[in-house]
Amino acid sequence: MDVLYIVVPCYNEEEVLPETSSRLKEKMERLIESGKIASKSRVIFVNDGSKDRTWEIIRQLHTSESLFGGINLSCNRGHQNALLAGLLAVMPICDMAISMDADLQDDIDAIDTMIERYHNGSDIVYGVRSKRETDTFFKRFTAEGFYRVMNLLGANTVYNHADYRLMSRRALEGLAEFKEVNLFLRGIVPMIGYNTDVVYYERKERFAGESKYPLKKMLSFAFEGITSLSIKPMRFITALGGFVFAVSILMLFYSVIGYFQGRTVPGWSSIMVSIWFIGGLLLLSIGVVGEYIGKIYLETKQRPRYIIEDFINQESDLDGNEQE
Ligand code: UDP
Ligand code: MG
């Protein structure tokens, strides 16, 4: 039977934890009873340096119920880092892990379908919001714009998928290979590969507490996502440089012809041409320098160049590695 771990990052969530934990407990008990998951399955709350009583509550939950566990981070490291800490911590002891927010905006009934898809051979199952009716217009507008802009700028993410997903143990092991410091899980997880699937659910309202993602945090999250996943913005500069450079050539012809036709005041041609020429040259050079910085940037990330899915050559003993 497969062991499921649910990982829940929590930042100042004292208001929601009692309700969340009791609902998750109910869910887990039902899953265990129906034989879908092993009885050793657990719910792990990751306390992300909360300033309120969150960690105290998690500790109480753990003492009263062996189903609940907790991880306490040294300080507030942000949602993404808290999530990664939880996932990597449970990796060696689980067969699959589901990450979800503490506020239960993501429908926990989708868990059953996720597990089903896992048994059908998917290593990663994305929870995708089918509707956002309960979100305010502003939140919906900004959040959906966020996914569009992200994809446009080369950070490929699953549309309307936040961090509610199931990952198999080997998918987690793949994730562990990404040593990125600028962490944007939604962009990295699709790079792991394997069989993936999608489960749709309706997003609910936060039942207590406030969103810990105000607009300011969302913007910096988007910026982080783009700059930590892609070097496309830099390519734009190079392309722009090439374009302006081409315009400078046109300007050259235009002003030289104008000069011979006598339509110009003295000095106009040379100034016009040099403005465009130098502008184009500058942008192009910045772009080229940027390309090199981009290479350094990708190099310093030390992303895995591949993740081995399978190795069927059992007889050979390459590098003395142990095979299953
Ligand atoms: N969170 C966290 N650290 C932070 C901010 C948020 O661990 O610095 C957690 C938070 O407790 C919640 C999840 O990340 O479980 C998502 O936050 P929230 O629900 O406020 O975001 P929203 O749903 O409004 O986008
Ligand atoms: Mg939320």
CATH level 4 superfamily of the largest domain: Spore Coat Polysaccharide Biosynthesis Protein SpsA, Chain A
Largest sheet: 7 strands, mixed
Radius of gyration: 26 Å
User: Given the helix and strand composition, which structural class is it?
Assistant: alpha/beta
Strand content of the residues, in percent? 5-15%
The whole-number mean of residue pLDDT values reads 84
Oligomer: single chain
Number of domains: 2
Describe the 3D structure.
- Residues 316-324 have low confidence and may be disordered.
- Helix content is 49%, strand content 14%.
- The protein has two domains: 4-212 and 304-323, Spore Coat Polysaccharide Biosynthesis Protein SpsA, Chain A; 232-301.
- It has a seven-stranded mixed β-sheet, with helices on both faces.
- α5 packs parallel to α8 (215-229) and α9 (232-260) packs antiparallel against α10.
- The chain has helices at 17-33, 54-64, 79-90, 110-119, 137-152, 169-176, 185-192, 215-229, 232-260, 268-301, and strands at 4-10, 42-47, 68-72, 96-99, 124-131, 161-168, 196-202.
- By secondary structure, the protein is an alpha/beta fold.
- It binds uridine-5'-diphosphate and magnesium ion (MG).
- Magnesium ion (MG) binds at residues 101, 103, 105, 206, 211.
